[in-house]
Amino acid sequence: MVSQTQNAGQASGIEMAWMARWAEVDKLESILCDCLFKGIKASRMRKGEENRKLTKLTDTVRLHLLRKEGEDFKLEV
Q1: What's the pTM?
Q2: What is the mean pLDDT of each run of 10 residues along the chain (77 residues)?
Q3: CB-based contacts of 49: which residues, under 8 Å, 6+ apart?
């Protein structure tokens, strides 16, 4: 199921992209891998890192680990 998001971002003039709300678990790995890597490489932040010759490390992705068992982790891109 795909729908266009409606939230405060649109009210402030930020164009929102289409968002997949439900994903087939079997397809997540390839979809996420492809989207994440393409998005990171195209980002303003990553292009700035590449201009500064930072090619092996990046600050464009952060993984917030669990603090307590049973909590969700957070992937920030």
Answers
A1: 0.54
A2: 40 56 78 87 93 90 88 86
A3: 55, 57, 58, 59, 60
